[in-house]
Design brief:
Strand content: 25-35%
Shape: globular
Distance between the termini: 5 Å
Order of helices and strands: EHEHHEEEEEEEHEHEEEE
Strand order of the largest sheet: 5-4-3-2-1-14
Number of strands: 14
Oligomer: single chain
Helix content: 25-40%
Number of helices: 5
Length: 239
């Protein structure tokens, strides 16, 4: 089975990001991929004014952004996963990952539980935390587990999903750049693969000066199956 990963720098514009995603889905389908995995915050990202802007951008899971993802999945016959801001009943939105099957059906959603509050960065000021761990879901590649970004640093979260039957792990991220950050990203992805003996696909944004890029996939032995580096866009991997 062929799985594509794609990285890009999400803008503070849902429509612009959808146009980028549409091109990526088309390219993935043309490469023969059955599944395309996209980064955290694929719907929208703003550097400043996050509390107000993330809330304003948020949509329900049956809103226009998710509906467009569903249509793209169905049109191109691929499974499609991406990060978005999910509107809550009140207050801050959830940082949510959605997974659509190749008929456009929403078959999984995951609200990030461990928010990144380190130094001057406080994700909890702009998002609310989810409450439930992700239960791996059946896909053509086997049961898929999901951890979002910072959660990669908690080996117990990956282990619980592996024990729950996950045959591969998807890690959507917006991994902040900085000294040794790309090294840490790759090392942690490989470690989760080795520990749990499952392939791990890490997909992060690649905004220059902000997010690392270096989306990559690792085999159960820690071997690099593919790496987009900082500037790559789309990579299709045979699982």
């Amino acid at each position: 089975m062929l799985i594509s990963i794609a990285q890009f720098a999400a803008a503070a514009d849902n429509t612009q990001n959808l146009a980028v995603i549409a091109r990526l889905v088309q390219k993935a389908a043309q490469s023969g991929a059955r599944m395309l995995l996209l980064p955290e915050y694929s719907m929208f990202y703003a550097v400043s004014g996050q509390k107000a802007r993330f809330s304003a951008a948020a949509e329900p899971l049956d809103g226009p952004f998710a509906a467009a993802l569903s249509q793209l999945a169905q049109q191109h016959g691929v499974w499609l996963a991406a990060g978005l801001f999910e509107r809550a009943d009140a207050g801050l939105p959830y940082n949510t990952v959605v997974l659509f099957d190749d008929t456009g059906t929403l078959c999984a959603q995951y609200r990030k539980r461990r928010l990144f509050d380190k130094g001057v960065i406080r994700e909890s000021d702009a998002c609310r935390a989810g409450e439930q761990p992700f239960a791996p879901v059946e896909t053509p590649a086997g049961k898929l587990g999901i951890l979002t970004c910072y959660e990669l640093r908690f080996p117990e979260d990956a282990r619980l999903q592996a024990l729950d039957g996950a045959a591969l792990l998807y890690v959507p991220a917006a991994w902040f750049d900085g000294p040794h950050k790309a090294l840490q990203w790759r090392t942690l992805l490989a470690a989760r693969a080795i520990e749990n003996r499952i392939p791990v696909f890490g997909v992060t944004q690649n905004t220059p000066g902000l997010f690392t890029g270096c989306s990559a996939a690792f085999s159960p032995t820690g071997e690099t199956l593919g790496d987009l580096g900082r500037d790559g866009t789309l990579l299709t991997i045979k699982l």
